[in-house]
Amino acid sequence: MSNVSSVSEFLLLAFADTHELQLLHFALFLGIYLAALLGNGLILSAIACHHHLHTPMYFFLLNLALLDLGCISTTLPKAMANALWDTRAISYQGCAAQVFLLVFLIGAEYSLLTIMAYDRYVAICKPLHYGSLLSSRACAQMAAAAWGSGFLDAVLHTANTFSLPLCRGNAVDQFFCEIPHILRLSCSHAYLREILSLVFSVFLGFGCFVFIVLSYVEIFRAVLRMPSEQSKHKAFSTCLPHLAVVSLMVSTGMFAYLKPPSVFSPTMDLVVAFLYSVVPPALNPLIYSMRNKDLKYGVKRLFLYMLLKHQ
Length: 311
Hints:
By secondary structure, this protein is mostly helical. The protein is globular, with a radius of gyration of 21 Å. It has helices spanning 19-49, 56-85, 92-125, 130-133, 136-161, 179-183, 191-224, 229-258, 266-277, 279-290, 293-309, and strands at 9-11, 89-91. The protein contains 11 helices and 2 strands; from the N terminus they run βααβααααααααα. Helix 1 (19-49) packs antiparallel against helix 2 (56-85), helix 1 packs across helix 11 (293-309) and helix 2 (56-85) runs antiparallel to helix 10. It has a two-stranded antiparallel sheet with strand order 1-2.
């Protein structure tokens, strides 16, 4: 049995057999990546530069944009480089870094989305206590807890995964380093430790999901009791983007990790991984800005400031 130390690099899955098609994939990835950078960058700049957006909801949205930027920057640049240079290789250290960063950022984002559900719950169900329950100090502590939980989760999974001996080659059947695909390269029974860690993460994620669902049950009950149609519309407008982001992340993540083996195929695996690791960071800025007048106004003012500055 060859030890893990004998593996100096991994081979990622190529998107196409011909270099011409790989260049086409490079152009597609580049467009998606630039759109994600632009969208999340505009949200970060608008929130940072405009004082009327310095509220708990937008503070959490700023953190979400940072996590989205990190998430898409963990997977796409390497995939683009491999497509451009017609290679599949990623170093052992680079693979470990991808696993760590992806688990860290996705775990922190899911925790943050749970906190954002609490923010909407307090704003709609307990508006008189909003200032005390979501003070600047409380918001900073909750955001730190979200980032910290993702970091601890990433340390646990990365340490477990890369302590395993690998004896089934070094070909990872995915366009980035993903834990289930690395576990398939191991022939040691120690991989059960990582499976137990994954099960623990699934139960933790399920707990967050239940919290989000219960929060929205209370939110919808409170909204339906509102006498004014305008108040109902405003409440739904602030909740729908968050619900859409949560639904996108949970549905793609659940299908990626909880799908039955009978529906497994390399193509399906590739598409699902693309959906949960690339699509949410690219679409989240669009989802959040589509129905948010304050955010639109902040972005417009930012554009106007940049135009006037360059005149």
